[in-house]
Design a protein that fits this description.
about 10% strand, Rossmann fold, alpha/beta, 9 strands, Dehydroquinate synthase-like, alpha domain, globular
Length: about 400
């Protein structure tokens, strides 16, 4: 008779391990527990690269064996160049400059980003600046995420400039060439970081429901992501060692920001815009900014969104197995309440007071998020930020 552990392992291998490929830039997404050891060598061969430069953060490097495992796989493939582990939160430009110098010294031809949104975004920025400096084609990137921030699915990235302001870059060539979703590597991720980036994934899914140019099939994938994230985040808090739950959450994060080739640039919505202006300047992690801003922004949408966007938002209740209130606006307000309840239940409630955000900065934050102070929603957004204290 097979043991329960063997049965679970066979189930995971059969249902949550596989491969997906799309577009000229993204050569493949490998997913499944333990998949790094087999898929990383495959991606190196697929990309035709010889020497890898690992970009990661200090905590992941110093406090876990995740980076060492990736280094060993690269060494076994005779493809290890060097590791840079000083990428700070929100990818400061000073850290990026240091990494660029080392990458050029070792003559690496591929970056392997290991960790959350900061090293993944930093790798995109490194590649972008190298491309700008050389005027040639950028080197490829392989992303091995250990959070649910979903930065690996976009062709854009962000960093903090010398004035600690968020700067965004965007280019079709910046999408990673390969992504590895290995739930085993997420076991070392701190609980608050893991769960809060799960809220970041919910933020992606919700804002894809009213983001311009997103086609209906992708919106329905966002619904599926919401259903799984709402289900599995609380289960993961109760059973943090479950690799099965973690793998399902990684796939849900993938669905929350499914790779798309849009006709033109389409920015994520107001919750993300506020998060970008709160995160870097005030040292608030990306996941926590979503915990702060998403529920209030959805509440505001019940009042200000277009009828089409309201219908998409209200439709989320069906996928969350929640009854309708009887009105579209009421359903959106209920969605906002459900998001806030999830934040609270996961122990992720916080305030701007905790992060010492000066109240006098509120108008500036609203202006930067909306891109101008004469925006029709300026007064409402100022009030929204005031209520985050």
């Amino acid at each position: 008779m097979l043991s329960p552990a063997t049965i679970i392992s066979k189930f995971l291998l059969q249902h949550y391990q596989g491969f997906y490929s799309w577009t000229d830039t993204l050569k493949g997404i490998y997913y499944g527990p333990g998949s790094t050891s087999t898929s990383l060598p495959k991606l190196l061969e697929l990309l035709g690269v010889k020497k890898a430069f690992i970009v990661t953060g200090r905590s992941l490097h110093d406090k876990t064996d995740v980076v060492k495992k990736v280094e060993q796989i690269l060494k076994d493939s005779n493809a290890y160049g060097a590791t840079f582990y000083e990428i700070g939160q929100h990818s400061p430009i000073g850290d990026i400059r240091k990494a660029m110098k080392i990458l050029e010294q070792v003559e690496a031809d591929v970056i392997v980003a290991v960790g959350g949104g900061s090293p993944i975004d930093a790798s995109k920025v490194i590649r972008y600046h190298l491309q700008q400096d050389s005027g040639g084609k950028t080197i490829p990137q392989i992303a091995i995420p250990t959070t649910l921030s979903a930065a690996e699915y976009t062709k854009g990235g962000g960093y903090l400039n010398d004035q600690h302001l968020k700067v965004s870059i965007n280019s079709p060539e910046l999408a990673p060439a390969g992504i590895i979703l290995d739930a085993e590597l997420t076991l070392a991720t701190p609980e608050k970081l893991w769960l809060s980036t799960g809220l970041r994934a919910i933020d992606h899914a919700v804002e894809n429901l009213y983001r311009p140019l997103v086609p209906p099939p992708v919106k329905h994938m966002a619904y599926a992501a919401l259903a799984d994230l709402f289900k599995y985040l609380p289960l993961c808090k109760k059973n943090p060692e479950s690799i099965e739950i973690r793998q399902k959450l990684q796939i849900a994060a993938w669905m929350s920001l499914f790779p798309m080739k849009l006709e033109k640039y389409s920015a994520i919505g107001l919750s993300h815009a506020l998060g970008h202006k709160l995160g870097g300047p005030y040292g608030i992690p990306h996941g926590i900014t979503s915990c702060l801003t998403l529920a209030p922004v959805v509440k505001l949408k019940a009042e200000t969104a277009s009828e089409s966007d309201k219908e998409w938002l209200a439709g989320a209740l069906f996928y969350l197995r929640e009854p309708s209130t009887g009105s579209i606006e009421g359903d959106i307000l209920k969605l906002s309440s459900l998001i806030q309840k999830l934040v609270d239940d996961l122990g992720l409630h916080s305030t701007l007071t905790e992060y010492k955000v000066p109240r006098e900065d509120i108008p500036k934050i609203a202006t930067l998020a909306l891109t101008r102070s004469d925006h029709p929603l300026f007064a409402k957004v100022v009030k929204l930020v005031e209520e985050l204290y």
